[in-house]
Amino acid sequence: MTALELFLYIMLGALVQVAIAAFVVLVKRWRDLRFMEKRLSGLEVPTPGEPILDDLKAAFQPGRKGGPWKGERPFRVAKREIESPDGKICSFYLEPEDGGPLADFKPGQFLTFQLDIADEAVSGPPKAVTRCYSLSDAPGGGRYRVSIKRVEAPFDKPDAPPGLSSSYFHDHVDEGDVLKVKTPSGHFYLERGTSPIVLIAGGIGITPMISMLNDALTHNPDREVWLFYGVRNSAEQAMQEHLQRLDGRYPNFHLHVCYSRPLPGDQLGRDYQHEGRVDVDLLRRTLKFQVYDFYICGPRAMMESLVPALDDWGVPDQHIHYEAFGPASIPRPKRQQAESAETQDEAPGPVSVTFATSGKTVPWDPACESLLEFAEQHNIDIASGCRAGGCGSCQTVIQSGEVSYTHSPDFDPEPGTCLMCVSRPKRDLTVEA
User: Fold this and answer.
1) What is the pLDDT of residue 85?
2) Residue 42's pLDDT band (boundaries 50, 70, 90)?
3) Which of 273, 276, 234 is nearest to 254 (CA)?
4) pTM, whole model, 2 decimals?
């Protein structure tokens, strides 16, 4: 055998080895990809202790996130789930009927529903009703969730009608039904970060707090989060198991549940941590001394007492964020003084507001936060939904005069109209209401 032949044989052997090695690598890569495809499609379960690649899984599911949509979009109810022992809080899981991407949202924002509700006592076409409900889970899932409490007649007014839209959801909206939904919106939301936060909820005000809590612990488990949740007793408490599970899992999450009227079987230390209501005295006794951002959502009485009390405690205005359910006038002297100093374009003298349809002309009260609140004080019925400038339900024609907005609304009002829930008169004003 010549030296040339020997060299060729050696080269051929080396090429064969390289080819075999490449083949083995390709086969391994192919098997890994097949395994990943099966895992991501749900056909194969990872072995215990093996990390689940959530980010990679999201990347393999196109269309999970998208931009906001215009107008109403049909969503199908994929699931209903009772969230409180008394059965009065129910979660509705929503998926887009068109199968398209979901718009992302910030934890604390809401969905606006356009409902067609028939009056069972009166024949005729259904009534168009607009209502807003907070999203009750963190962004990033493949569907939306809202958790709605059945609103019953108040104890002191047993003859009053129950909540129209909440009764409709509980009694008539089933799995498979399709609802008309506007894109997520709202100015009450939590920004991701590292600063410690205090979430305060009363009753069904827990829904945006669950969204904030889930998002904060998912994206920054080391962030210090305090949740103060006030309800009457265990029968009314929403998502108790979920909250207790998070409290046991995350050392930086501090759960404080307050029962104002505990049931005989409710146990202090097991079911709740404090007897009474959530107030500033409780916060001062419980919280460590440091700077917090406060996020508050609850019924009128709670908001009207707690928010000004935080002001008096010395919490800076920029660290107090709140959203009230229903009409609530939150007296905040510090903010009102600052707004008065900044609002130079409002008329310096008395301003009158005329409600043309109702035939009333009344002097404007600068203590009111909005024209909607002002109208309600004078028993003038204005259709409303979100009360935050997001749904457009309170859009009203301006016949004369001009308004200013307390903040930039999510809904763009038509020319010659205003959103009563987030506007104030700049000078004498006449509206079609």
Assistant:
1) 97
2) very low
3) 273
4) 0.77
CA dist., res. 399 & res. 380, Å (int): 17
The pLDDT tens digits of the residues spanning 169-187 come to 999 999 999 999 999 988 8
Phi, psi of 340 (to 5 degrees): -65, -35
116, 100 in Cβ contact below 8 A? no
Residue 420 per-residue DSSP state: G
Q: In one letter, which amino acid is 74?
A: P
Q: Which residues contact 284 (CB under 8 A, 6 or more apart)?
A: 313
CB 78 within 8 A of CB 179: no
Report whether 196 contacts 289 (CB < 8 A). Answer: no
The SS3 of residue 307 is helix
Question: What's the one-letter identity of residue 195?
Answer: S
How far is 133 from 281, CA to CA, in rounded Å?
Answer: 30
β-bridge mates for residue 361, sequence order: 354
Count the Cβ atoms, other than its own, within 10 Å of residue 131: 23
Total Cβ atoms within 10 A of residue 46: 11
What CA–CA distances, in Å, run from 239 to 56, 121, 253, 257? 29, 35, 16, 12
Residue 342 vs residue 189, higher pLDDT = 189
Give DSSP secondary structure letters for 280-312: HHHHHHHS-SS--EEEEEE-HHHHHHHHHHHHH
- Bridge pairing between strands 395-400 and 429-431: antiparallel
Give the strand pairing for 320-324 and 293-298. Answer: parallel
20, pLDDT greater than 90: no
CA–CA distance, 244 with 272 (Å, rounded to integer): 10
**Pairing outcome for strands 89-96 and 73-82:** antiparallel
Q: What pLDDT was estimated at residue 337?
A: 54
